[in-house]
Design a protein that fits this description.
- By secondary structure, the chain is of the alpha+beta class.
- About 15% of the residues lie in helices and about 40% in strands.
- The chain contains 4 helices and 9 strands.
- The strands form 2 sheets. A 7-stranded antiparallel beta sheet has the order 2-1-5-8-9-4-3. The chain has a two-stranded antiparallel ribbon with strand order 6-7.
- The longest helix has 9 residues, at about 60-70.
């Protein structure tokens, strides 16, 4: 019989596939406008025979509007310590009101028309396959619902096919 050793999931995550509580940037554009939002909800996996990402974006976010318009988004992974100020700025300001990328002193690049953050170490370019509002009636663990969904601002979950992985 083989012996299995328990391993903390955080110990085996690395690179662009590590969603372990760090912030990542979800970026989208519609050809004339670009916006990004900092997120910590998401994951990477396989579904429908494709490599995919799962991201959750609040329905009031400007970035959601741009994802819906273009059907594409990028996930940019930055050093959370080095870019702590930029990430905090992105969380505090709305892209509807100002060019928050400029304010955060981050640069936008494009891969086949999909915007991403130049300062990233890893980028996932994704095409939306599925989206759905996360309803509060589906929670088995009601404590999650009570903590994260007190108001009307729900998350929309997107499943996006990973079209390209860019590494520095």
């Amino acid at each position: 019989m083989r012996v299995f050793q328990p391993v903390d999931p955080e110990d085996i995550e690395s690179g662009a596939y590590a969603f372990n509580g760090r912030k990542l940037l979800v970026t989208a554009g519609d050809g004339t406008r670009v916006n990004t939002t900092a997120a910590s909800n998401g994951g990477v996996g396989q579904m429908w025979g494709k490599r995919v990402t799962f991201i959750c974006v609040r329905e009031n976010r400007y970035t959601k509007e741009l994802i819906d318009a273009s059907g594409e988004y990028s996930l940019s992974f930055l050093d959370n310590n080095e870019y702590r100020g930029a990430i905090k700025y992105l969380e505090a300001v709305s892209g509807k009101d100002e060019d928050k990328l400029k304010g955060a002193r981050l640069n936008v690049c494009y891969h086949e028309g999909v915007p991403f953050i130049e300062e990233s170490s890893n980028v996932l370019i994704c095409r939306v396959l599925y989206k759905k509002e996360i309803g509060t009636d589906g929670f088995v663990d009601e404590a999650i619902r009570d903590e994260f969904y007190k108001g009307d601002n729900k998350h929309v979950i997107y499943v996006g096919e990973i079209m390209k992985v860019l590494v520095r």
